[in-house]
What we know:
Blueprint: E1 2-4, E2 10-12, E3 21-29, E4 34-37, E5 40-44, E6 47-53, E7 56-62, E8 69-74, E9 81-86, E10 90-97, E11 103-106, E12 109-111, E13 115-121, E14 123-131, E15 134-143, E16 147-151
Parallel strand pairs: 3-9, 10-16
Antiparallel strand pairs: 1-2, 3-6, 4-5, 4-7, 7-8, 10-13, 11-12, 11-14, 14-15
Amino acid sequence: MIYSTRLGFTFIVLVALVRPQVPVTILSIPSGAKVTANFEEIGVTPINNHLFTSGRYTLEVKLNGYAKIVKKINLYSAKHLEMEFRLNELFPVVFKSKISGLKFETGGQTWEKRKAKLRMEAGRHSIKIFAGNMLVDSVSLVITGPLNYIYDPR
């Protein structure tokens, strides 16, 4: 900002906008996951007291063989933040149908072939079955390891 006085003196006042830094600790189970903040890699877990400028961030935690985790955080009023992520393992799933002409959908994945090889996160999943645009059935799968599943509605 520039100010002028009646006597002809001019002086400049510099105002620094300093955003506070927040120390963030990021842990994962298992450790060794790559962490990015707003698409910039910041390190591999465990990450201790990484300094973030206050603001909004999208964190991604990724490790081969595990489902990626995406988390949005706001660091405007934080003094310190510690986060722990539990990564779910991905398992191979072979899904076979005894009926052709159906469409299958789960977690953003779709397929129309009678046999599909998928990588699915450990846990419970619902698979929707369509004939054309009409939902005709759904099945629930619990993934705890590699799985071969045969869909037969009879």
